[in-house]
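Researcher: Re-running this chain for the archive, since the previous output was lost when a drive failed. Same request as before.
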Amino acid sequence: MPVSNADWMSQNLSERMMDLRRALLTMCASVEGRVAKATKALLERDEVLAKTVKTGDAEIDRMDIDIESECLEILALQQPVAGDLRFVVAALRIEADLERVGDLAKGIAKRVIAMGKQTPIAYPDVLRDMAEAAQTILGNSIRALAEGNASLAAHVRGEDRHVDDFYKAIVTWAVQEVAEHSKDAKSIVDLLSVVRAFERIGDLSTNIAESVIFVVEGEVVRHAPV
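Model: Regenerated structure tokens:
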């Protein structure tokens, strides 16, 4: 029996949605890996590793463009509805957030390289805690996306406050350090740029989690209290 045009369109949409999901999760893995490498380079003061993060941004940019183009084609040609439509709309937001996270990882790597040319300063103990918390939030938001887990996504929204608390603690430390060790001011300012990047990674991970809630539950929680 010949396949109707409607059946063909439905089958084609299903295949394209699977491809889109696969591409988005591939981008997630790549971005998560870059953040992990940038963090390792920072904590271990590894300039060689930092340089690999700094020069490896083109892959993320290509994924960004490819996923955006695919989303727009699906919207224009396939006319998705209900859950498929929500996923495509969310994918456009998520890939943009991921691209920004990738840029932040590159920024961290650049600061590591810059600090390597300066007199080393002792990192505050809370720096590792903040970096690990930001990575955990990013990983959980990606897992929530992969699993379609709205409960985990809601948990991510609440956990972001810990990253904010670490950020405030490091800013307080930096003010004291500059007052006591003015010769290290450049390194301290560079480190503040790094912790600001981790704070933004937490925010963007929260955005991804909110997009997951939209996909799964059809609810916009972007401005809702945690």
